[in-house]
């Protein structure tokens, strides 16, 4: 017999199983008593005197027994009644024990079916604790709804941990890769100066200072991402007008934009959000620096702010550069990803610009969106929850 357990809540499933086992127990006892009743009656007749037995049979047959036989039956009834009650009690106890044994075995089997996923989950948890993030429990066709949800949640958590481990390994290698070149340059030049091979020239010192500045920017960007991972990136919120912030950052970036020959177009609609003004300005500056490095050939950078729908605000940067790859939304969360396929440092920067902007967006409950601009170029949009005036 195959018993199917649907994905019911554990409380309902337990109640249904309990009711079913109670019904089975009552049925076993009732069927046992019904089965033993003719045999008990036969044994009862054997214990009766002949005249009393004949009177008992006559009464059951609907006949009038003789007076002497009836008196004999009545005189023996108290003793026979006690014996019969004891025999009935033994029958009920015997079949009750049978029902308990049977229902206990069925209940144990059902409990094992329900608890089996938990045993597998416990073993998988031990494997996960030892560092095996590839462990998965998989789906179970049988079991309670809560157990299925727990197993599904565990598998999702294990997959997320495995992904985090892979990303940590990649990020560690990427950090080492990015630090190696400037540190090698610094070490080689300083060693050469110490040995007298290289003269101590102002130009050489300026070049080394540029390497140090690059390392400082890299460390600061890594610190920003670390704060974002610990949900400590945005600690102080206030009402911020995105148009005002964009105006200030664009004004402070005139020299940077002019150095690469880029002009600015604006369409700034006042819109308020609740956020950290310093971090939002950091994100805006990172987007501007990204445009100056990869879209300077387009000559024009357009900045827009405004509302989207009833509860969102945005800052949008539009350029006329070469555009972004189709899979930029995947690479933007990777450390040191750059828009150029060679990943060279010819264009400068730490390679963390879009990662930092995306971290700031998420810390504000927003997101970063990428799209192609009609006529060529890229559109990068920072979407934030809008502060609704009461």
Automatic annotation (TrEMBL):
All residue ranges annotated as the HAMP domain in the record: 112-166
A molecular function GO annotation: ATP binding
Keyword check for Transmembrane: yes
UniProt keyword terms in alphabetical order: ATP-binding, Kinase, Membrane, Nucleotide-binding, Phosphoprotein, Plasmid, Transferase, Transmembrane, Transmembrane helix, Two-component regulatory system
Top EC class, one word: transferase
InterPro entries xrefs: HAMP_dom, HATPase_C_sf, HATPase_dom, His_kinase_dom, HisK_dim/P_dom, HisK_dim/P_sf, Sig_transdc_His_kin-like_C, TCS_sensor_his_kinase
Transmembrane intervals: 12-33, 91-111
First and last residue of the signal peptide: none
Domain Histidine kinase residue range list: 174-388
Compartments, record wording: Membrane
Name of this chain's protein: histidine kinase
Origin species: Ensifer adhaerens (Sinorhizobium morelense)
């Amino acid at each position: 017999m195959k018993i199917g357990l649907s994905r019911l809540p554990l409380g309902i499933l337990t109640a249904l199983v309990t009711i079913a086992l109670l019904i089975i127990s009552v049925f076993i006892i009732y069927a046992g008593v019904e089965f033993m009743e003719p045999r008990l009656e036969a044994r009862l007749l054997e214990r009766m005197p002949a005249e009393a037995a004949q009177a008992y049979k006559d009464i059951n047959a609907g006949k009038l027994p003789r007076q002497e036989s009836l008196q004999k039956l009545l005189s023996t009834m108290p003793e026979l009644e006690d014996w019969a009650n004891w025999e009935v009690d033994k029958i009920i106890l015997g079949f009750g024990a049978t029902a308990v044994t049977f229902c206990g075995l069925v209940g144990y089997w059902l409990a094992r079916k329900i608890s089996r996923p938990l045993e597998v989950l416990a073993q998988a948890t031990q494997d996960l604790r030892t560092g095996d993030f590839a462990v998965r429990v998989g789906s179970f066709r049988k079991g309670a709804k809560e157990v299925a949800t727990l197993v599904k949640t565990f598998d999702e958590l294990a997959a997320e941990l495995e992904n985090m481990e892979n990303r940590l390994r990649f990020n560690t290698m990427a950090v080492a890769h990015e630090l190696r070149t400037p540190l090698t340059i610094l070490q080689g030049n300083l060693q050469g100066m110490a040995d007298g091979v290289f003269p101590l020239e102002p130009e050489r010192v300026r070049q080394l200072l540029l390497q140090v500045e690059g390392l400082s920017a890299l460390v600061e960007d890594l610190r920003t991402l670390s704060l974002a991972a610990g949900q400590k990136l945005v600690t102080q919120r206030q009402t911020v007008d995105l148009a005002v912030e964009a105006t200030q950052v664009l004004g402070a970036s005139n020299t940077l934009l002019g150095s690469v020959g880029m002009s600015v177009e604006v369409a700034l609609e006042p819109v308020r959000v609740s956020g950290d003004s310093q971090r939002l300005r950091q994100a805006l500056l990172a987007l501007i620096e990204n445009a100056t490095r990869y879209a300077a050939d387009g000559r024009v950078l357009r900045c827009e702010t405004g509302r989207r729908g009833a509860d969102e605000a945005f800052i949008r940067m539009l350029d006329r550069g070469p555009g972004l790859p189709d899979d930029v939304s995947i690479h933007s969360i990777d450390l040191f990803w750059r828009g150029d396929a060679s990943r060279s440092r010819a264009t400068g920067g730490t390679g963390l610009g879009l990662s930092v902007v995306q971290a700031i967006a998420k810390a504000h409950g927003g997101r970063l969106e990428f799209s192609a601009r009609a006529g060529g170029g890229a559109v990068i949009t920072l979407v934030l929850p809008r502060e609704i005036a009461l």
